[in-house]
Amino acid sequence: MSRANRTGSGRARSGAASTRTLAIDIGGTGLKASVLDTRGRMVTDRVRVPTPYPCTPKVLVKTLVDLVAPVGAYGRVSVGFPGVVRGDLIVTAPHFGNEIWRGFGLARALGAQLRAPVRLLNDAEMQGLAVIAGKGLELVVTLGTGVGTALFRDGELMPHLELAHHPVHGSRTYNQYIGDKARRKIGARRWNRRVRRVLAILQSLLNYDRIYLGGGNGRRTAFKKDRSVRLVSNDAGMLGGIALWRDKDRPSI
Predict the structure, then answer these.
(1) Are 141 and 115 found together in one domain?
(2) Are residue 182 and residue 208 in the same domain, yes or no?
């Protein structure tokens, strides 16, 4: 399970800026960032650039530093990464290449460049921190380039499950079955049927009380949803960054 991590040398900032959080959402298609106040509200316009490919650690760090240059002052940084993380280290980076990313200290490298402390978490988990009610078993599913998941029980983050790479239909994984490539290939109607089928599978597997659908393709779901399903803004991937700096909410697994 991923543990949010603090690192970086820290740059002196005073007043409100010292408690503002730069939130970065790393996606397979785009990189987004904004600065949040202590209540988790955006105080700057969101900035976005396409995710570069090939996306090596060096390329990603440089792109992020350039991306956030115009956003203004902040005192700390939260980063959501599309893969498994352990503290400061990347364990898997399926969109970018596991071999070149395995063991890379992204929080430390980014903190050194931004001169601010950095905490790192899986991207679906960071999104979940912005949207969950904190009661019962809540599942977050992000539909984007791939499929991200995060599970919470009474507000506590549960061990991470990389369902995206688990077979869900024959030999096809969740990524292959309902990821963006599949949507583009089979069209909206068939893709929506698949997503609905997957939600039923997840209900049977986890018996969740509520499910939150996010990511860039969450808004493309067109089937009738029951009361347990809630669509959430794609910006939640950044808004959850404030929770990484509230010690009582900080994931500890």
Answers:
(1) no
(2) yes
Of the candidates 189, 188, 163, the one whose C-alpha atom is nearest the C-alpha of residue 176 is 163
Write b or e for each residue in 199-222: b if 16 or more Cβ atoms lie within 10 A of its Cβ, otherwise e. beebeeebebebbbbbbbbbeebe
Do 89 and 188 lie in a common domain?
Answer: no
Evaluate whether residue 193 is within a structural domain: yes
- Summarize pLDDT for 169-185 with one digit per residue, the tens: 999 999 999 999 999 99
Same domain, 94 and 141: no
Distance between first and last Cα of the chain: 6
Q: Examine the domain organization and report whether 20 and 121 are in the same domain.
A: yes
pTM of the model: 0.88
Q: Cα separation of 23 and 250, whole Å?
A: 15
**Same domain, yes or no, for 81 and 142?**
no
Contacts of 247 (CB under 8 A, 6+ apart): none
The domain of 32 spans: 15-126
Q: Report if residue 251 sits inside a domain.
A: no
Q: What is the 3-state secondary structure (H, E, C) of 115-154?
A: CCCEEEEEHHHHHHHHHCCCCCEEEEEEECCCEEEEEEEC
The per-residue pLDDT for range 113-164, each reduced to its tens digit, is 999 999 999 999 999 999 999 999 999 999 999 999 999 999 999 998 889 9
Cα-only R_g, the chain? 17
